[in-house]
Amino acid sequence: MNLGMFPIAPMLLALGIPIIYCLGWKKESLRKVMAISICCFFIVFLYRITADLGNIIEPTLGYFIGKLILFTILPLITILYLERCKIKTALTEVGVRKDKLVKSILLGLGSLIITVILALIIYSGGQTEPASAYWNTVMFFEAFNEEFLFRGVLLIYLWKITDLKVAYATSILAFMLAHPQHLTSLSLICVAAQGILLGVVAHKTKNIIGPWISHGINRVIPQILMATVFQLI
User: Fold this and answer.
1) Of 43, 45, 167, 208, which is least packed with CB atoms within 10 Å of its CB?
2) pTM to 2 decimal places
């Protein structure tokens, strides 16, 4: 598979974990795991629309809309199909809920402190310019799409139909492999830390709102701080 055409293709390797688990220990869940795997295959195969929509609309907004379709709407349709339920119930299944909302946000902010510190240490030698308020706003909301897939579907929902350890391994590995640009650099530490910490928050609260807020702010704060320090120097 050409990674130029399918840049997030490595994440499909993580889906082997729940498939193997179900084949060996929980065959009754294999149908649902296969449905999620097929959903992820289409996410990878259709990922080019994030760039195509950017060319049609505007790069940042097109990227957001493309990720919304692939990472949120397509998995949501998959859950609706598997559970034969209403949208509200399907959203609850993946952690979009009011229960433990405050705890989720507080734990998410705690995780944010760690990931920001790691980012500042690892990227301390880099020189960067602060992004526009428009970019920051769109990318904050876009972080919800990744949380919906990686922490909502591949952790909370997968935990329900397989096993907690299987869900953790799948979620963290898929998140890391979906960012192949970091696989050969120290920035992989930041990606791994974020995947682990936000996974813990989602596990402890069964709520992805805190992870979303943490993920969204983490995209903005480090580059603003580094740009500010660089300007002062």
Assistant:
1) 45
2) 0.93
